[in-house]
Each structure stands twice: as structure tokens, then as C-alpha cells.
Amino acid sequence: TVCFDQGRLQAPAKELLLMLLGLEIHFTACCPIDCVCYPSPMTVSCQAHNFASIPEGIPENSERIFLQNNQITLLLRGHFSPSMVTLWIYSNNITFIDPDTFDEFVNLEELDLGDNRYLRALAAETFQGLVKLHALYLYKCGLSSLPSGIFGGLHNLQYLYLQDNHIEFLQDDIFVDLVNLSHLFLHGNKLWSLHQNTFRGLINLDRLLIHQNQLQWVHRRAFHDLRRLTTLFLFNNSLSELQGECLAHLGALEFLRLNGNPWSCDCKSRSLWDWLRRFRGSCSSVICESPEQMHGKDLKVLKAEDYRNCSGSESLHQIKTHTFSTADRGASKDHHSHHSSKEKGKERGVEHSLHSSQPAAPPGSRPGSLPINYPYVCLIMFINYMEIYLQM
């Protein structure tokens, strides 16, 4: 059996040529019309031919299939065989993917579905069972949401491209099974918040790009599992504040981009300022939007004196708040709101003993030392004792 490239030489001509040479052959056409096929591994290349559907005649033993830049609209069960290792079908007009299209495709390693702008939705089981998948491209697919469990079981996935969609919200634990993921691209979406368990389980993540979204709020423990992260892009969002504790878990961080946000450089920015002051990696500018007297300044170059009017109670929840539980912080916040100014002064003393990064204690005292009026107290106690003794 001999397979020829029909796009270059018609089968009858080939047979006639070989017959003239006295050769007897059995001709089998095993490459789709207008496609080019290569053996070892079996590769089918059908890009940029305006196919409206998957071309017929793709050999069952095909491992690499290239169908990008066509007009394909549907992916259905039976279009491909489980021997497939690589599928590029980006830049088509796909509107629907049958959830069983890739059922039992245990050899599939790379799947590029990007730039199919009318796809808009995926079933939760679309990628179920793709145990060898290491790269998944879903950029520019018009996706507004991701169903729970869509990435379940993809333990070998290393690259996930979700940029330039319309995603507004990420469910908790959406990435929890992606323990080997190293690159997660989420930029160019419409995300407005990151929650505590948004990125839970991403223990090997190296790069996280979330720039050019609409982020206004990031939970203080949103990045708590990302201890190997080296690159974090948060620029061009709508962040006005970010707690220093958010970044405290990122011990391997090397590149941080925070520019293009309307930063508020009031007392609440103190923990971020303190973290940036100790950060030894590369960081963008962090330009203050407010208050007015700070407008245009870079948060990174502010001095401790710029926070001299910030009371301890205003920044208690900002600096090293991992020493408290969530309940403790909530109780502390309520406690502060009902105390007198005198009691707040006492609490600031306790705060200093817990957080070494707070301003120094008054002269003559230090964390853990006796009160500054201790001799006076001793004198009063001695006088009272003598009065009692003389009355005996």
C-alpha cells in the first residue's frame, strides 16, 4: 500500500508511471484532498484552505493534525481518533464543541482552540480524561465564564492560555487539580475580584498574568499557594489598595508589575509600602492617585514620615495580619471602633509588641519592658505600706 500527496500529483498519473516501470502496486489515498501528509509521526496539515468542516479522510493513526485558519464551525465525536497527540484548530469559526469530542484521548498533549471568537461556552466535561495534556489554548474564544470542574483531572497541564476573553468571575478551586501548571494567562478579561481559593492548588505556578482586567479587590490570601511564583502582572486594573499580606506568601517572586492602577496612598497603603520596601525583585512604579497631597508620587519612595499621622488602629489589619485569624481580626476591628482614644493608645502598645515593623515605642520603654512610671508606682505602694504599719 502506497500513500501519495494528491495535491501535487494525481493518483492515476502515479499508477501509470509505476506501471510503465513494470511495478505492481495497490494504491490507497490516505490524505484528505487539499491537505499535505507526512509519516513518522503521521502528520496531517490542512491549514488555510477555507474548510467549513473537518475534512474527510484523516488517517486514524494521525498524531499531529493542523487545521488552523479555516472556517470550521463544529467539533463532534468521531472527527478525530484517540491516537492524536497534537491538534491545532485555532482561528476558525467554532461555535460548539461536543463534550465527547475528545473522549478517551489519553495521548493528547497539545490542544489549541484559540481565536474561535464565537465559541462562548464550554461544557464542564469537555477536557475530561486528557491525562497527558500539557498545553491548552483557549484565548480569544468569547468565553464569559468557566464551568466548575472544567479542568478537573488535568494533572499534567503546564500551560493554560485564557487571555482576551470576557471572563468576569473565577469559581473557587477552578484550578485546584492543576498541580503542575507553570503558566497561567488571564490578562485581557473582565475579572473584578480574586478570592481566597481562586488559585488554590497551583503550587508550581511560575507566571501569573492578570493585567488589563477590572480588578478592584484582592483577598489577602488570594496568592497563598503560589510560593514558587516568579512573575506577577497586575498592571492596568482598578486597584486602589492591596494588602502587603497578599504578597507576603510570594517568596520566589522576581518580577512584579503594579502600574496603571489608581492607588490610594493613605494609611491603608502602609502594609504594601512596607512590603515593597523589603522586596528585592523588579517592580514597576506604583503611582499614587490619592489623597491629593500624594497625587503623582511613587508609593515605593515614600518615607516613614509620610505615615506619621496613621494610628496603630488604622493599620493593625494591614501589617503582618497573618498573626491573627479572620475571626480575631473581625473582633479586633469591632473592639477598636468602640474604644476611647485612651484605650486605643494602650492597644497601639500591644500592637507594637506584636509587630516589629511598627514605629518605635516611646523613649525609655521597649516591647516587654516595665511601664515608664514603674518607680512612681513603687513609691506609692511603699507609702501606703508605711501608713498601715504606723497604724498598727
Automatic annotation (TrEMBL):
It is found in: Cell membrane; Cell projection; Membrane raft; Membrane. Residues 330-354 have a biased composition (Basic and acidic residues). Residues 1-30 form the signal peptide. Residues 261-311 form the LRRCT domain. GO terms for cellular component: cell projection; cell surface; membrane raft; perikaryon; plasma membrane; side of membrane. It comes from the Eukaryota. It is a lipid-anchor. GO terms for biological process: negative regulation of axon regeneration. Pfam families: LRR_8. Belongs to the Nogo receptor family. PANTHER family: ANTIGEN BSP, PUTATIVE-RELATED, RETICULON 4 RECEPTOR LIKE 1. This is Reticulon 4 receptor like 1. It comes from Gopherus evgoodei.
